[in-house]
Design brief:
Elements: E1 2-5, H1 20-27, E2 32-36, H2 47-52, E3 56-58, H3 61-67, E4 70-72, E5 90-93, H4 101-109, E6 113-116, H5 131-150, E7 158-160, E8 163-165, E9 169-173, H6 177-188, E10 192-196, H7 203-208, E11 212-213, H8 234-250, E12 253-256, H9 271-275, E13 282-285, E14 302-305, E15 308-311, H10 321-338, E16 340-341, E17 346-347, H11 354-359, E18 360-363, E19 366-367, H12 370-373
Parallel strand pairs: 1-2, 1-4, 2-3, 4-5, 5-6, 9-10, 9-12, 10-11, 12-13, 13-15
Antiparallel strand pairs: 6-18, 7-8, 14-15, 16-17, 18-19
Helix pairs in contact: 1-10, 5-6, 5-10
């Protein structure tokens, strides 16, 4: 089996899908790995580093794509590249399948088995493969570092001969993987941290990190079987905004992390709420790439409105690309090893397996994923 690993072509992407230590693990299991020349250059990994593991270096991208039985990458492929893929080959990467109908249809049309890393179920067995969580974890860290860098105040409380400096007040909206890491990072820096989530079940996790959980009575909420927050009704969203407006007005930094899997992110901070915040305050909209949580935030821009800085920078994990590459590469090789046939020395699509059922999007010319079919 030939495993092909092309370079990322998305503008500004510095993360690398597969690093030499992961290549080494698969080659020892009998895989033949072909790496596109320059794959690791963005994180100072040379072609020679890949060669030392036993990988083959290929400078012709089209040759690599057309000969590989299994293609590993980070970002979804350009639509025009799919026609070069080997028929009945397997493609593994983030795909954003709910918003990329043309891409999914092209995979089916070209008889490619496409696996979406976003759709790996959030189960105990699948944790080591959960790339969405590993990248969100890093994004939560980066969000706080960006805010701290741009803030005109220090995070910790200081008692000095010149007087006492109060700690920065940080409010985290959403206590999923990204939110919990944001809480932990802000606390390490010495901030006073509050957090809110529509799922009461995460209150204990928030408090265990030293933050105060903001109580807002929204009625019945909860989470999906995969651990995501359920969508709120318009009435619940309005109650939530009213409850959060007071906390936002007292906060120096607000970080929003609310996203709905496969759907547009909800607006949780309105322009009216922003107008009530203190000049010099900062909002980091971590959901800006999926529609945004904040009215007025713009993708890949920093906008100043009434003295409040809105940070809408995308690809936050890419700002710590070395660690992001290490974690994503580990997620990929853990996934491959889970379905590796030691005797035949190939990657097997186990169509009866729960994890595979959750993340396999197309197979043998058909869309096979149950969620997408709905």
């Amino acid at each position: 089996m030939i495993i092909g690993i092309p370079k990322e072509t998305h503008s500004g992407e510095k993360r690398v899908s597969f690093i030499p230590s992961s290549v080494d693990r698969l080659i020892k299991r009998g895989a033949h790995i072909v790496v596109e020349s320059g794959l690791g250059s963005t994180i100072n990994i040379s072609d020679e580093d890949y060669k030392k593991t036993g990988a083959t270096i290929e400078s012709n991208r089209q040759n690599l794509l057309s000969s590989a039985d299994l293609i590993l990458r980070l970002r979804k492929p350009p639509l025009e590249e799919i026609k070069f893929f080997k028929k009945n080959s397997i493609h593994l990467s983030f795909l954003d399948p709910f918003n990329e109908k043309a891409l999914v249809d092209e995979f089916a049309k070209c008889q490619i088995s496409a696996i979406s890393m976003e759709m790996i179920p959030r189960t105990t067995r699948a944790q080591k493969m959960d790339a969405l969580s590993s990248q969100a974890n890093l994004a939560g860290y980066v969000a706080i570092i960006l805010a701290a860098e741009r803030s005109h105040k220090i995070f910790p409380m200081l008692m000095t001969p010149a007087g006492t400096i109060n700690p920065t007040r940080v409010f985290i909206i959403g206590a999923g993987v990204a939110g919990l890491q944001a809480i932990a990072t802000a606390k390490r820096l010495g901030a006073r941290v509050e957090a809110f989530d529509t799922r009461p079940v995460v209150k204990e996790q928030v408090q265990s990190l030293g933050a105060k959980f903001v109580e807002i009575d929204l009625g019945e909420t909860g989470q999906t079987k995969d651990g995501y927050a359920k969508a709120l009704t318009p009435e619940q969203l309005e109650k939530q905004r009213q409850g959060m407006a007071r906390v936002c007005s007292q906060s120096d930094i607000v970080v929003t992390t609310a996203q709905l899997f496969g759907r547009k992110a909800p607006i949780v901070i309105t322009k009216d709420m922003v107008s009530q915040m203190k000049p010099g305050s900062i909002i980091v909209d971590m959901a800006v790439e999926s529609g945004g949580n904040v009215e007025g935030s713009k993708p890949n821009e920093e906008v100043l409105i009434n003295g409040v800085l809105m940070i809408g920078l995308g690809n936050l994990p890419g700002r710590v690309c070395v660690n992001a590459s290490q974690m994503y590469s580990a997620n990929l090789h853990n996934f491959i090893e889970e379905y590796w046939d030691k005797d035949a020395k190939i990657f097997q699509l186990n169509l009866e397996d729960d994890i595979m059922k959750g993340c396999l999007v197309t197979h043998q010319g058909q869309i096979v994923n149950a969620q997408l079919k709905k």
